[in-house]
Structure formats: C-alpha cells, structure tokens
Amino acid sequence: xxxxxxxxxxxxxxxxxxxxxxxxxxxxxxxxxxxxxxxxxxxxxxxxxxxxxxxxxxxxxxxxxxxxxxxxxxxxxxxxxxxxxxxxxxxxxxxxxxxxxxxxxxxxxxxxxxxxxxxxxxxxxxxxxxxxxxxxxxxxxxxxxxxxxxxxxxxxxxxxxxxxxxxxxxxxxxxxxxxxxxxxxxxxxxxxxxxxxxxxxxxxxxxxxxxxxxxxxxxxxxxxxxxxxxxxxxxxxxxxxxxxxxxxxxxxxxxxxxxxxxxxxxxxxxxxxxxxxxxxxxxxxxxxxxxxxxxxxxxxxxxxxxxxxxxxxxxxxxxxxxxxxxxxxxxxxxxxxxxxxxxxxxxxxxxxxxxxxxxxxxxxxxxxxxxxxxxxxxxxxxxxxxxxx
Length: 389
Fold this sequence. Notes:
Layout: E1 7-14, H1 25-40, E2 49-51, H2 61-68, E3 74-76, H3 84-97, E4 103-110, H4 133-136, H5 143-158, H6 162-176, H7 190-194, E5 198-200, E6 203-204, E7 214-222, H8 223-226, E8 234-244, H9 258-269, E9 278-281, H10 286-296, H11 304-309, H12 327-330, H13 339-351, E10 365-373, E11 379-388
Parallel strand pairs: 2-3, 2-4, 9-10
Antiparallel strand pairs: 1-7, 1-8, 4-7, 5-6, 8-11, 10-11
Helix pairs in contact: 6-10, 9-10
C-alpha cells in the first residue's frame, strides 16, 4: 500500500553545534528532539512513536525512550548507516498510515569531531563475525580508498575529470557561504580543490566531507494532526529503500542503490525528475554526487561530470539546485551520517525557510537521497520525495 500523502513532516531541527566536547551523545539527541518538537509546536508528551539508528546510546531506542521519558506505542531502531534516517522516515510514514502511532520522533546525534575519530583514513574494522571480513581484511580497506577507487573507475569508463568532481565542491561552498553555522564557509575555486592535498587518488582533501559533532531531528504526524498545526505542511509522496549487495565481487562500481530507490520513489510519487525543484544529495565524497545524479535519472550514465561542470547544482544559476546548506562537504556531517541533514534542508526549501540567497523559487517538490555504510562493498540506500501541500 502506498504511503503517498499519508504522513507529514511538521518539525525539523538541525543542532547548531559543530564541535561539542562538553555534551554527551544523549544530550545531543535530546536537544535535537526538543528543537524539532518546538518547531512543530508539540511536546514530548505528544510523541507516541520513536525512531533512531545505531548512533543512539545503547544502539537502539530503549535508552533514549527512557532518557526522554517517552510513552510510546511504536519504536524502530533500524541501523543502516548514513541513510538510516531516510529509511526511518519511510518506516514512520508506514506506521502513521497504519495507525501504529500518530506523532513520530526521529533523532540523530554524535560527536566524532570532539572524539578525534579518523573516519575515512583508518582501516575499517568490520569484526570477525561478519562474513565479508575474511575477504576484505587482508587489504585493510579505508573508506577514502574505496571511494577513490569508485572515482577512478568512473574516470576510466566515462572520461570524468578531477575538475568536474571539483565542481561539486565549488557549488556546495558557494551555498555554504550564506550558512552562518557551516563548518567551512569560504567559497573555493576548481583550482583550490584540485590543488588541495591528495587523500586517496584521485580524491583530494576538498573532495571529502567534513567531520562534525551535532545532530538533528524530525517530527512526523498524520494528515489530521498536521492540519491542526500552524506550520507549513510538507508531506511525503514517494519513498524507496534497498540493500545494494556487492554481488560476490561482481558489482558495477559506477552504479549505486539510487538506481533502485529512485525508481521506487518516483513511481510512488507519480512524478519525474523534471518535477524536482531541489535535491539534497548525500555528498560524503564528490564522486558520490555524480553517481547518484546518474542513477536517479537526472543525467545519462557517464554524463554527470559535464552536468555539474556547467554549474547546474548552484542555486539561482543551474537547473538542479542541491545541498543549499553547504551539505556534508561544507556544512555538517553529524556522527558521520548525512541522511538527517539532507531531509532537514529539503524541508527548509519546501517551507521557504532556506537562506534567501539560496532559496529555490516556487519550490514545491524536493528530493533527498543517500547511501548508508560504504558504497562499493555493499550498501543501503534510500530516496525520499517530499511535497509542499
């Protein structure tokens, strides 16, 4: 059964901190929750459904339900990396549609920056219980190394250049200059990106996302409650989720789970790429934006490089404004998970609450998309399409 127009986002909050050595992860979750509920005009007493992922203390909903003093009828602790919050939004919409809960709270928080986490450059510790470990461990893979391989493969197959990858960062930095809370606000040039230190060939430092502390939260409700709240109404019209396996090593390194989740979301929403006015695209690395643009159908496979180089991602200039908060490349990547902030900026755009310099005119349909865990060795993926009512 479709969830098209069955659930609404009525509260959205991005924690303002980017460095929080004085706050616990529980505190960041709670402050984010209270911020989103205040935005919606609701309180903790109104919440009867709670949704979180593995970043929550204890790895599931129990500790935060206790900490927040919630009285819930429905919980979901699905852990699928950075896209968990998009998938949780989908699950919350299903729960609301089925009457399992009426006010759903989704939270994210973490402090990798203040804890000095070497997220992308340390060999991945997958643990001996995972079946892929015996195959991966001898190569000591790092996240940056894996994404570097994806970028190199795209270059080999389609002639993509470092300058085209850099155009993604230039667009993100152009938007971030207007976000007073962005970690990196300085505009950059193509030359700045390609001359920054090499991290994992062909990816330079400025091709990589920031590491930040912080968090975010969303509040979702039924249509009836949304219509009683005096806030702009944003409803979910299309969703998709999948697990893109590595197919025993015979995977296509130029294809992401967006090829599946995009098709699911567009079919459910009954819209096409031509209807999307704004896109939040997970940008842990610049190559990931190109891959998803192609898999979602905004470009033919292999053509995203020229597309971004023409400035199409820049608000006010291009045909597909993206990540107008500066995205993970410049603004925020709390807990090394970008799905929540992608949804929050999409909600801002649909409400007309983005910064005036990057607000998309007549933004009535927006898309948020992103992977979870590590593309290239099997990953989760989700795409969400939202509409201003």
